[in-house]
Amino acid sequence: MKKQFLLVVLGCAAVLPFGTTASAQSGPQPSMVAQVAFDFQAGNSQLPAGTYEVTATDNKIVLRNLNRKAVAMVGTMHAAGATEQRNALRFERRNGQLRLAEVKWSGSGDHLQIAK
Questions:
Q1: More confident residue, 7 or 58
Q2: For residue 37, what pLDDT is reported?
Q3: Which residues pair with 55 in a beta bridge?
Q4: Where are the domains of the chain?
Q5: How far apart, in whole angstroms, are the C-alpha atoms of residue 46 and residue 94?
Q6: What is the DSSP string of the chain?
Q7: Which of 22, 40, 62, 104 sits CB 3.0–4.6 Å from 88 for a disulfide?
Q8: Confidence band of 51 (pLDDT split at 50, 70, 90)
Q9: Which of 55, 48, 49 is nearest to 13 (CA)?
Q10: If we measure between CA atoms, which residue out of 78, 79, 101, 77 comes closest to residue 89?
Q11: How far is CA 9 from each of CA 26, 56, 91, 95, rounded to the nearest angstrom?
Q12: What is the C-alpha separation between 99 and 73, in angstroms, rounded?
């Protein structure tokens, strides 16, 4: 059985509130800025360590590296959970690689799990 290690990025990858943006189709879209201290995979994209703007749109999230020209769009599924005190990115270790597994928004119990 494969061992999976979960990393909750709260302290080492400072996740800061960034505000919300408006969309005429689906209302406010939550976004945050996150400092990720390691290379990781999001969907089929390999992304470098750096500062990312993370924005939710309908059934996907967009990760935009603010230091380099790296952008990824990945599908998500909604999952209910405990209300979060702050924004967080959760990573899993699979086959020796860190993969983005979930995005959590402060003040919300609605989490976005990355589609596998």
A1: 58
A2: 96
A3: 31, 62
A4: 5-114
A5: 13
A6: ----EEEEESTTTTEEEEEEE--TTTS-EEEEEEEE-S-EEETTEEE-SEEEEEEEETTEEEEEESSSS-EEEEEEEEEE-PPBSS-EEEEEEETTEEEEEEEE-BT-SEEEEEP-
A7: 104
A8: very high
A9: 49
A10: 101
A11: 28, 18, 7, 19
A12: 14
Token digits of residue 86: 């702050």
Alpha-carbon distance of 23 to 27, in angstroms, equals 5
Q: In the prediction, which pLDDT does 86 show?
A: 87
Indicate the residue type of 12: C
Residue type, 115: A
